[in-house]
Specification:
The protein is mainly alpha-helical. It contains 13 helices and 5 strands. The structure holds adenosine-5'-tetraphosphate.
């Protein structure tokens, strides 16, 4: 029997998840679980790359598991686990860190953006080496595809460079070449208060949080920054606010941007347009929030994580052993 291809992705528990995380990642994951052997984890080690309160990290972690389940991930089909539960991630990281270069890592957009906000002397090594751990996450499971939003594709590209370099060096296919897969619509949802900036959970301005009260969500959409015109047209350069709202609407309605533009072609009032977008967001998020609350109170989270950790560890340890053998680390009984 032919082995199924693998899909892997994760979210780091650095804050309250946003609508951007939902559209760019969360809602995409379940699309893969029927056709791929799917691994979805909580990147809690990655969350330590910037200072974070322990209790905040813990609560965010639990939330993400509940969000995964509320978004339709089925633990029978998808291995859901904590990165820190599988020690092979840290072990592979300590091998692969020798295969990426300072120059490459310093050119990563995420590193440049996040480190810019810090005093140079206080930039953590973990923040700099973030893509090495991400490469370890992907390669331990020999993932064929990595569903991610726009901002993470650069790290997957770097992982591809690493695979090429590693396999060349040892003259065998130790790692499979992974590929980033982005959602058709909505791979970069922008902030509602500044549509030139990405909606981001650790930079909460103008964001819609998945846990926001429904009335707040409506208010935020109704007061989203737009231009002074009256045309509902997709033009990210000149009409970033309207384009962002069109993207949100199209994505949640499972239609293309052109179809969304067509739907609103006769509307000339931005208020009317925003109301329709708000209705759509609420139609999707309200039942999602309901499921999330039920899951959080159901007590299933620990069980899902402990079964996930067992399944993930089994596969990850097999890869780690192969890598250790390849690089010449001595394996004994
Ligand atoms: N605004 C967004 N639009 C579409 N996709 C997005 N993602 C994040 N923001 C948007 C996607 O969500 C997944 C999980 O992201 P992550 O937790 O690994 O961290 P991130 O990419 O750095 O996302 P954030 O929300 O901006 O987190 P912080 O603020 O902690 O850095 C990824 O697939 C990402 O592309």
């Amino acid at each position: 029997m032919e082995e199924r291809k693998r899909a892997l992705s994760g979210i780091k528990p650095t804050g309250n998840l946003t609508l951007g995380n939902y559209i760019g990642a969360l809602r995409e994951f379940k699309k893969f679980q029927d056709d791929y052997e799917t691994f979805i984890f909580i990147a809690d080690l990655h969350a330590l790359t910037l200072p974070i309160e322990p209790s905040f990290l813990k609560n965010n972690t639990k939330d993400i598991v509940a969000f995964y389940l509320a978004a339709g991930l089925d633990p029978q089909k998808t291995t859901i686990f904590l990165q820190s539960d599988v020690s092979a991630h840290a072990e592979l990281n300590s091998i692969l860190i020798n295969f990426l270069y300072m120059g490459e890592l310093s050119r990563m957009t995420q590193f440049k953006e996040k480190s810019q906000k810090l005093n140079h002397e206080a930039i953590g090594v973990g923040l700099f080496a973030y893509p090495v751990l991400m490469a370890s996450d992907i390669l331990l499971y020999n993932a064929d595809i990595v569903p991610v939003g726009d901002d993470q594709t650069q790290h997957v590209e770097l992982t591809r460079d690493l695979v090429h370099r590693f396999n060349e060096r040892y003259k065998k296919e130790v790692f499979i070449m992974p590929k980033a897969v982005k959602p058709k619509v909505g791979s970069r949802i922008m902030s509602l208060s500044d549509p030139t900036r990405k909606m981001s959970k650790s930079d909460p301005k103008g964001d819609i949080f998945l846990k926001d009260d429904i009335n707040i969500i409506r208010k935020k959409i109704m007061s989203a920054v737009t231009d002074t015109g009256h045309e509902i047209k997709y033009d990210p350069e000149n009409k970033p606010g309207i384009s962002n709202l069109l993207t949100i609407y199209a994505s949640l309605s499972d239609i293309t941007i052109e179809e969304a533009e067509n739907k609103f072609k006769d509307i000339t009032q931005y208020g009317e347009f925003k109301k329709t977008v708000a209705d759509k967001v609420i139609e999707v998020i309200e039942p999602f929030q309901q499921r999330y609350k039920e899951i959080l109170n159901s007590g299933v989270i620990d069980q899902v994580l402990s079964e996930g950790a067992k399944r993930a560890s089994y596969i990850a340890n097999k890869t780690l052993r192969k890598v250790k053998k390849t690089v010449g680390l001595y394996l004994h009984e």
